[in-house]
Design brief:
One of its GO terms (cellular component) is anchoring junction. The chain is mainly alpha-helical. It contains seven helices and no strands.
Length: about 160
């Protein structure tokens, strides 16, 4: 809920002019970093079903727990969007920052880019949560947040 609320909220056009891609990328990255810092020890802060699926396939998560995580992620995302929808004026709300494919990009190209963006994000999760990292250097939350921001900077 928090991730979607803040990420989409920062993606709305609150003022005149073009949308600032850096603002959107940082909002999603900081929201993810905050959730990893706060909830990482509880659930691994899987705010994305792709991360949960990857952990399931990588035998890092049981099927039952993965199903409950994905259900919670979907319900949380819907709740975050619903709260944002209810709090924003219709002129600003628009389509709640629904992503669309650029007219010059084919569906196959967009899908390929999305696969690479998801791959680097999931890889970052696996690398930062890897138990074999003795004496981790840096912040897990920041690494994941920056990874997500990187994906948004490229993908948006």
């Amino acid at each position: 809920m928090i991730y979607v609320f803040f990420g989409l909220g920062a993606s709305l056009r609150w003022g005149a002019g073009p949308l600032n891609v850096l603002q959107v990328a940082l909002a999603f990255g900081l929201a993810a970093a905050t959730l990893v810092q706060v909830l990482g020890h509880v659930s691994g802060a899987h705010v994305n079903p792709a991360v949960t699926f990857a952990f399931l396939v990588g035998a890092q998560l049981s099927l039952l727990r993965a199903v409950f995580y994905v259900v919670a992620q979907v319900l949380g995302g819907v709740a975050g969007a619903a709260v944002l929808y209810g709090l924003t004026p219709s002129a600003i709300r628009g389509n709640l920052a629904l992503n669309t494919i650029h007219p010059g990009v084919t569906l196959a190209q967009a899908t390929t880019v999305e696969i690479f963006l998801t791959l680097q994000f999931v890889l970052c999760f696996f690398a930062t949560y890897d138990e074999r990292h003795n004496g981790r250097v840096g912040s897990v939350a920041l690494a994941i947040g920056f990874s997500l921001a990187l994906g948004h900077l490229f993908g948006v």
